[in-house]
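Posting this for the archive.
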Amino acid sequence: MFDTMTFTKILGAVCGSLLIFLLGGWAGEIIYHGGGGHGDEHEQAYVIEVEDSAPAEEEVEEVDFASLMAEADPGRGERVFSKCRACHKLEDGANGTGPHLYGLVGRDIGEVDGFNYSGALSEVAEVWTPENLNGFLEAPRDWAPGTSMGFAGLNSAEERANLIAYLDTIGG
């Protein structure tokens, strides 16, 4: 099938391709870096002048959570609750994947009968205060390491405050 001449042609084609690849890299080095050796022995051929300015750092406004709660809108919180609806129910005693949220604000953590909690929540706090809910809703796994809640959290402090205000109107 393969004789010596065919094998020699294939080997020659591979070696020729490698040689062209190496020569292309060498030519590119000369064109873009000015040739010569490596290091700082050559000056840059073209310098673009820019104003000397530090990169602008975004200032994050720290908003007092108490003032956010004072301005919270339960109506908007009801819309935010749509993210929770897949796992939580608002009816008293109606557990879903997560425990029911009826009367949540002010309730003891891990109090819902018939729901098997992971235990990580009760190690962090005793009562679902608005401040505890804010921390939990921001990043559940950071606030209560080991929690079985799979939700990533709500980034917006305003959304969290609105949701807490809405949950505060349910039951209790």
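The CA atoms of residues 58 and 89 lie 39 Å apart. The chain has two domains: 1-31, 65-169.
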